[in-house]
Amino acid sequence: MAIARFPSLVIDCPDPGALAKFYGAMLEWKVDVSSDWAEVRADYGQCISFQQVDDYTPPVWPTQELPQQMHLDVIVDDLDAAEAAVLDLGATRHPHQPGTSFRVFLDPAGHPFCLCVN
């Protein structure tokens, strides 16, 4: 029997509401925002939470100058269509693209995430 279950991932950021709205729109998950905390939740229960951090400094990827604390890989059917959609939501395409079956972006708080076709 498992000791624990995986209810959510918590991401540090300067503006939890803004980041929750970004990921909520990208994943089509329900967004719930309070003053210093926000979360997005799938209908099936998976959750990503966002915690406000004073003096937040985003990671610098791919260097380790300020290492990434985490990154999300999300599966998409069409890289070009998904890229256009996340850019419209406020993501930035990272200049370093080390693969062909995925693309690296930065969310509005500077966290790397990947759109992946497999």
UniProtKB/TrEMBL annotation:
SUPFAM superfamilies cross-referenced by the UniProt entry: Glyoxalase/Bleomycin resistance protein/Dihydroxybiphenyl dioxygenase
InterPro entries the UniProt entry points to? Glyas_Bleomycin-R_OHBP_Dase, Glyoxalase_6
Q: Start and end of every Glyoxalase-like domain?
A: 9-116
Identify the domain of life: Bacteria
Q: Please identify the protein, giving its name as recorded.
A: Glyoxalase
